[in-house]
Amino acid sequence: MFKKTIEPKNKGAKISALLSFIGGAFMLILSSGGTIPLLWLAQMLGISLITYSTYVVSAYIFRRYTVIIESMSGAAEDGEGAYDFIIYELGPRRNGKTEIKVCDVSVKHIDFVRVVTAENKKEVARDRKNKDRYTYDAQFAAVRRLEIAITNGGEVASILFSYDEELLRALVSIGVKKI
């Protein structure tokens, strides 16, 4: 019924990763010359900046997600809420696979969906305090995100996902409550 690959537009992530890598390399080169006091501090800062740039590249530049909302097998019997919400992580080939299923939830277990913005971020954090949280957001410093709250077998969890208007409309159209 609905399938979309969310491509990150991460110009900020690319700039941040490049600058932190260059800064880290500079600090390591500077500390190897022995011309500055506290060499260990410069080395730690250099390693920290390079580690940060590696994290940004792996988490925000190489990650993409595909969202699928499809009818469940046996949907004719169940009727309402007979859809699956599936998220695949797309990435470089690992063991012959380019996509890995990271989320598979029946839509009938989704309590609500809401848009998380800077204005309601603290309220959302309070609501989510004692819940498991799964983040499938490939946008670096995103202004808006989607939170999908699920209850499955008494377990309460929250899925944070990159904001996408089409995905929000698709979830609302199959009966998921928007708050």
Structure characterization notes:
- The protein is 36% helix and 35% strand.
- Helix 1 packs antiparallel against helix 2.
- With 179 residues, the protein is an alpha+beta fold.
The proportion of residues in beta strands is 35-45%
Total E-strand runs: 8
Give the helix proportion (percent range).
25-40%
Mean pLDDT across the residues is 84
> How many helix segments?
5
- Radius of gyration based on Cα positions: 21 Å
Main β-sheet, spatial strand arrangement: 1-2-3-4
The assembly state of the depicted protein chains is: single chain
Class of secondary structure makeup: alpha+beta
Low-confidence stretches: none
How do the helices and strands follow one another from N- to C-terminus? EHHEHEEEHEEEH
Biggest β-sheet description:
4 strands, antiparallel
Shape: elongated
**How far apart are the first and last residues' alpha carbons, in Å?**
23 Å
